[in-house]
Amino acid sequence: MNWVEIGQNLLFALSVGSLTLGLMLVLAGAIGVIRMPDFYTRLHAAGVTDTLGAELIIFGLILQSGDWQTMAKLALVGLLLFLTSPTATHAVANAAHRAGQKPDLAHFRPKHPRELQDPEAKA
Fold first, then answer.
1. Residue at 122 is within a domain
2. d(Cα 65, Cα 49) in Å, to the nearest integer?
3. Which structural domain range is residue 33 located in?
4. CB neighbours of 15 closer than 8 A, spacing ≥ 6?
5. In total, how many domains does the chain have?
6. Residues whose CB falls within 8 Å of the CB of residue 37, separated by 6 or more in sequence, listed in order
């Protein structure tokens, strides 16, 4: 095995690792959308993991492609996705806030110290 074959195998392993990690992040975001309690936490789970997962998938595809034109096109798609995905997530959250959508803060409210000392005491 010469150095060219070792480099190709290393490049292939790096691209498969990037594709796998990106797929796992996108899957975690989908599970987060299903499991989170309210709109804003669902939007956060989808926005963060979707951007990073898609970027890792595009990076893996760039490593797989052998043509420089395909690499340039994928890099351009990655750049546009990197700029537009967080912007779109922010626009959706801002529109929901302006429409009066309230976060479900009662779900995350910590217990009052009196409730921790005596669970049957009501304030």
1. no
2. 24
3. 3-103
4. 60, 61, 63, 64
5. 1
6. 104, 107
